[in-house]
Design a protein that fits this description.
mainly alpha; two-stranded antiparallel sheet; 66% helix; single chain; elongated; 2 domains
Length: 171
């Protein structure tokens, strides 16, 4: 197998895989058209790349397109920062005790399914607190405020809050 064919197939595979993973505006069809254009530029005279050496211009174009696609998804998005697992990790860092943390995870799962934008009538956020200021807090601030509420009402015992929720449907 010639080096150029191997490079083109590898680049196509990378672009195709990256295209499937990305949530950006670049569509797979657009990426494939870019890949086809890059392969044509890689060959002298704009002909089919079969058996011909790669030109510098084509190599630079291929490298630029590949770098753009790979770097377009490199930075974490705000949504990932507020992903359920990151919020659970934050809550665990606030609670420390494993049993209390398990109670808290179950409580929030049943209250809001870890959706910090959730709303049930006049109740908002992760802990379904009945306050409009709670609705406007970040997810981490919601966790802190909810834990302060539990600390005040249940003497800091998250499992008491969970047991109250299990018995009455609210806490």
């Amino acid at each position: 197998m010639r080096c150029l064919d191997l490079h083109d197939r590898t680049l196509s595979a990378v672009l195709s895989a990256r295209c499937q993973m990305t949530t950006r505006r670049l569509t797979c069809g657009f990426v494939h058209r870019l890949d086809k254009r890059a392969r044509l530029l890689a060959s002298p005279g704009g002909q089919s790349p079969k058996g011909k050496a790669e030109s510098v211009r084509g190599a630079l174009f291929i490298g630029f397109v590949a770098a753009f696609i790979l770097l377009s998804c490199a930075s974490p998005s705000y949504a990932w920062k507020n992903h359920e697992m990151n919020l659970k990790l934050y809550a665990h860092n606030q609670i420390k005790d494993w049993d209390e943390f398990i109670c808290y995870v179950d409580l929030i799962q049943r209250e809001s399914s870890w959706n910090y934008k959730s709303r049930n009538g006049s109740h908002f956020g992760l802990g379904q607190m009945k306050s409009t200021w709670y609705r406007d807090l970040t997810p981490r601030q919601q966790i802190k405020a909810h834990l302060r509420y539990i600390d005040h009402r249940y003497q800091g015992d998250v499992c008491k809050a969970f047991n109250h929720w299990a018995k009455y449907g609210w806490h």
